[in-house]
Amino acid sequence: MRKVYLDHNATTPVHPEVAAAVQPFLGDLFGNPSSIHWAGRDVRKAVEDARAEIAAFYGCRPLEVVFTSSGTEADNLAVKGVAYRPGNAGKHIVTSQVEHPAIMNTCRFLETQGFRVTYVPVNRYGIVEPDAVRAAIETDTILISVMAANNETGCLMPIVEIGRIAREAGIPMHTDAVQSTGKVPISWETLPVDLLAFSGHKINGIKGAGGLLVRRGVELAAVLHGGHQERGRRGGTENVVGIAAMGKAFSLLRQHMDEEVALVRRLRDAFEGALFSRIPELVLNGHPTERLPNTVNLSFRYVEGEALLLNLDMLGIACSSGSACTSGSLEASPILLAMGADPTDAQGALRFSLGRGNTDDDVAYAVDAVERVVNKLRAMSPLYHPREAKAR
Ligand SMILES: Cc1ncc(COP(=O)(O)O)c(C=O)c1O
Hints:
Layout: E1 4-5, H1 16-22, H2 38-58, E2 65-68, H3 71-83, E3 92-96, H4 101-111, E4 116-120, H5 130-136, E5 141-145, H6 159-169, E6 173-176, E7 195-199, E8 210-214, H7 240-278, E9 282-284, E10 295-300, H8 305-314, E11 317-318, H9 334-338, H10 343-347, E12 349-353, H11 360-380, H12 386-391
Parallel strand pairs: 1-11, 3-4, 3-5, 5-6, 6-7
Antiparallel strand pairs: 2-8, 7-8, 9-10, 10-12
Helix pairs in contact: 1-7, 2-7, 3-4, 5-6, 7-11, 8-11
Bound molecules: pyridoxal-5'-phosphate (PLP).
Residues 70-72, 75, 100, 102, 147, 151, 176, 178-179, 199, 201, 210 line the site of pyridoxal-5'-phosphate.
């Protein structure tokens, strides 16, 4: 069966050059990077080379890169690290209603620990408006955390404007850049944010490695207590394979990101355009242009998203309904509901996220398959009457 992977926001295939680059760390280069003898030294060098690659990609200093086990841990470190830092008197956090569970559930946990959180709503495109963030600030706000791009809709948030508001108010700002990294340019030098989370497996690296950029001078409490690794900010022997993989993945992005993004954008636009021209009663969830170049989230009216997903899977097409972390449940996506989507539309939503390796043939195959499956499912729906639907 032909297989077409259109779920790159969930995870990406490991780049062959990344897989090749980590081979030595599964063999001779086994040392602990904290050991000062020969076995540790080469491995320490690999960790620091990766840190330098990541710093070069974002335009930050190597010492501003803190390795973690994932994007989730990086988000936890940012939010809890600020909440629990020494001398912190404030108890209020501002975030948005459309954050990934890595932020959302960290904030909910902090609410059980005496913190207060304002979850700023989004506009109908799913975008956080800077004025809403400004209005949410209280006298004891200690952190503003707004994602750079949403994982479900791909919507790009105005983090520069929000960061400026945070700066004016003297409040640290975190952004979850797990989805935007590698898809839109990010320049740490000009970005008014203090903390930024990323993840290796979203950029053709390996699962189980991520990181947090921490601007120089920003103090954070450790979340994982242990050894002195990462200058005391994150105890635990480093995931050398995952970190070396990220180093290679970031180096490849530095070389090829522009052309890869241009290709993916062309394929996504062709996919989206063909679906809209061939399938009636289709709704785009998210902003038409302020969006990641690889993502399209669509509601197919009169069709259950989950049924569509399973039928497409049978034809070899991998996509997603809601975020990967909530798939398996039939609940409508909270992200789409927060945008004010009709609950039935939210239930019929699917996310297609393209990436490196997708081709024109993949797009043609997927468009045919989606059209076929939607027609089949609508034909079984007692609610779907094509003539009336077209006339609406
Ligand atoms: C926006 C966003 N933040 C955080 C994460 C979590 O990253 P990880 O899978 O590395 O824990 C994801 C993963 O889907 C994400 O999309």
